Amino acid sequence: MAKSKKYYVVWEGNETGIFDSWGKCQLAVKGYPNAKYKSFKSLSEAESAYHGNFSEHIASGKSAKSKVNTMPDELRHEVVWDSISVDAACSGNPGKMEYQGVDTSTGHPFFHQGPFLGGTNNVGEFLALVHALAWLKQQGKHNLTIYSDSRIAMGWVKKKHCKTTMKLNSSNKILFTLIKRAEDWLKSNTYKNPILKWETKKWGEIPADFGRK
Question: Is the peptide bond before 115 cis (omega within 30 degrees of 0)?
């Protein structure tokens, strides 16, 4: 099945406007501090959003909840709604990266970190999972389910090692500190929280999605 066409609105970036491919959008925002952009399913939606206020469209607790509400009723029983969902976003690879964790059922944000320079999406997904595990342990929620749409990050957590090819430099030094801290936490702590794969093809984007690609 062919992938559906998407249009990308850039409100703040190296170049603003509406773009008809992720590649063009990526060039428009790469390296731009706090770029504001999002994808839309139709040109008319993109045009309406571009001429409106970006704050109404950038991913937030409210928009995450609307993603959940669009899931077909016959699939909703497959999801553990009393859970936390995590995701990361990265402009460029490497590039500016951030991650967050939200309530799966409501989209309410629990934590958000970043942006960090010189990161990758996989590193963000890994840090988001470990952050969720540590946060849930602190909250005493030892059995709460965590959803991630990254099999790579889930594998890294299981092996307690972030197998990134990211190269250390002056801009991403803090990320290597966070990675080491996350690996140390995994090696010195135990957890019971199930980590499950969010089935994007069936359920749509994970509630923690930033809505940017």
Answer: yes
Strand partners of residue 100: 87, 112
As a whole number of angstroms, the distance between CA 163 and CA 154 comes to 12
Q: How crowded is residue 22: how many other Cβ atoms within 10 Å of its Cβ?
A: 13
Helices (H) and strands (E) in the chain, counts: 7, 8
Of residues 30, 18, 100, 17, the one with CA closest to residue 59 = 100
Q: What's the whole-number mean pLDDT along residues 34-60?
A: 72
Q: How many residues does the chain have?
A: 213
3-state secondary structure of 102: strand
What is the tens place of the pLDDT at every residue in 50-79? 876 665 555 444 444 445 556 777 888 899
Residue with tokens 């801290």: 181
pLDDT band at 21 (very low <50, low <70, confident <90, very high): confident
Task: Reply yes or no: is the peptide bond before residue 94 cis, omega within 30 of 0.
Answer: yes
Over the stretch 97-126, which tens digit does the pLDDT of each residue have?
Answer: 899 999 988 888 888 898 899 999 999 999
Task: Give the amino acid at 116.
Answer: F
The C-alpha angle 176, 180, 186, rounded to 5 degrees, equals 145
How many CB atoms within 10 Å of residue 101? 25
